Amino acid sequence: DTKRRRWAWVSRIEEFKGTSILAEVARLRPQDKFEIFGPLQDTLEELGLLHPNIVYRGILEDVSAADFSSCDGFLFTSLFEGMPNVVLEMSQHAIPLILADVGGLRDTFDDSAVAFVQHAADSSSTASGFSHALDRVASLDEAAQLAMLHAARDQVIARHAPVVHTRGVSKLLGVE
Hints:
- The protein has six helices and six strands; from the N terminus they run βαβββαβαβααα.
- It has 176 residues and is of the alpha/beta class.
- Helix 1 (19-28) crosses helix 4 and helix 5 runs parallel beside helix 6.
């Protein structure tokens, strides 16, 4: 499959968000385009993100209002997290999620909803894992991709919808 794919990457652009992994994935996939969004902590050059197929798109004021419909998926390379809100927000854009298996993400998603990638001993090996996951997602037929998108949306709603939060707070306060 030599189709040029477009992948979105949304985060603060800093080292612990896995910028070295992103740079290596871009190097491994010169035919693909990586559109990155977020505030820069250093220059793209200092972060190793000056690649012909990485395009910096600036800061998104509102992730929910952004248009990712031309993207083939969302790439999340972070080295560690709690529960990253950006992943919850991106799950509502109906594009596949390819996520580092970090923080509380498995508390919300299972393998039917997202493509998880384990961090390896070095960024090069991790990038290879991400590249394979991108290939797997890109090779899904329409029905399988739709099932994945619906599962991600449904799992976020089941865990993070306002009514679920209200129920949890009520239970915590003993006012069920």
